[in-house]
Each structure stands twice: as structure tokens, then as C-alpha cells.
Amino acid sequence: MGKQHTNIKIQPAKPGSQRKVDVYFQRLDASHQNPTNQILHYIFVPLMVLGILGMAWAIPFPHIAFIGKYNGYFNWASFIIAFGIYYYLKMSPLLSYFALFMFFGLSYGIMQLEVYEKAGGAELSAISVVILLISLAGQYIGGKIEGKEASFNDDTKLAYVTPLWVLYRLAKRFGLKY
Predict the structure, then answer these.
(1) For 140, what's the count of Cα atoms within 13 Å in the CB-facing half-sphere?
(2) Are 32 and 85 contacting, i.e. CB atoms less than 8 angstroms apart?
(3) What tens digit of pLDDT does each residue of 66-87 get?
(4) Would you say 90 and 166 are in contact if contact means Cβ atoms under 8 Å apart?
(5) N or C terminus: fewer CB in 10 A for the chain?
(6) What pLDDT sits at residue 52?
(7) Greatest mean pLDDT among 34-38, 61-65, 104-108
(8) Quick one: average pLDDT of 3-16?
């Protein structure tokens, strides 16, 4: 019995083919043409992420013995950050690094809100919910200004990619290739 050879041709990527992230960015660019809407998104998308992380941070995390002295450093927000960075890394390594720095900054802000809570201020969970509601309202207003307030419902994946899109717009502004 002789060997059978199969000739498998691997098609090179077409010059016009795009990465998945490029398709998402184009869709987001198309629904965010108004400069006021863009500015509102630059402000309120990071605030939305802050609110989500703050709410997850406020959920009590179990004490895990083998973590030892690092128990206070892990919480539910850690998992959101890890998932986000992994997801973004698959889409764009450079932008995922920017996202990591953004997450560090937001985490620092949340830690300051914890200090405020311990000093007698409002609870982190309540502040986070208010921040999230304000950010969603700001994005809704931006959508109203744009005339495309329903675009958020078109594809839920766009909600995950929108923070990365904000970083992409900033990178693009500085001429960085993502």
C-alpha cells in the first residue's frame, strides 16, 4: 500500500483582511462620529470600568490559607482585570499593556475609595453603583447626541471592546500602531 499525499494549500491572508479587533473598532468608529459623543466616551467609559471594578472589589472575597499574607491583594475585581487583560492581549498586545496601566490606575482609585470608606465615608459598593449609573447615563446622552443610542444593544461584544477602543483612539492620536 503506497503513501497517499494530500496537497494542502495554505492560503495567505488577503492584503485587505482584517483582525477581529479592527472590525470592532470600525463599528465603534462608525457609531461615534460626533466629537461631543467621543469626548463623553473618553470620560465615561473609564468611569464605567471603575464602577464595575469597584462593585466587584466590594464583594467579600474568601480568605484562602495558601495565599498567606497576600490575601488582601486578591478580590473579585482581580479576576475581571485578569480576564480583561487576557482578552485584550489576544486582540492587541500594545493596547492590552495600556489597558493594564489603566487597570492599575483604576485599582489605585478604588483603594483610595476604600480608605475614604474606612475613614467614615460612603461605602465602596454605593459609590461604585453611583459611578456606574452616572457613566451609563453619560454614554446614553452621548448616544442621543449621536442619534444612535441603540447601537449598544446591537452587539454585546462591543461593550467588552469599548474600553480598548478608547485606548485605541488615544494611541491613534499619538500615531502609535496598535
Answers:
(1) 6
(2) no
(3) 888 888 788 999 999 999 999 9
(4) no
(5) N
(6) 97
(7) 104-108
(8) 46
Q: What would the grid cell of residue 48 be?
A: 464605567
- Residue 27 phi/psi, 5° resolution? -65, -40
Q: Taking the model in full, what pTM does it have?
A: 0.83
Cell (9 digits) for 31: 457609531
Going by the DSSP 8-state scheme, the letter that residue 61 receives in this structure is -
- Which of 52, 63, 70, 61 lies closest to 124 in space, CA to CA? 52
For 8, which DSSP code?
P
Mean pLDDT within 25-40 = 89
Q: How far is CA 5 from the centre of its chain?
A: 47
**Angle between helical axes of 157-173 and 20-30 (0-180°, round to 10):** 80
Write out the three cell numbers for 100: 493594564
Look at the block and give the residue holding cell 494530500. 6
Burial of 158 (0-12, 13-18, 19+ CB in 10 A): middle
Say if residues 45 and 134 touch (Cβ distance below 8 Å).
Answer: no
Residue 116: left (phi > 0), alpha (psi -120 to 50), or beta?
alpha
> Hey, what's the cell of 38?
467621543
Model confidence pLDDT, tens digit, residues 39-61? 999 999 999 999 999 999 999 99
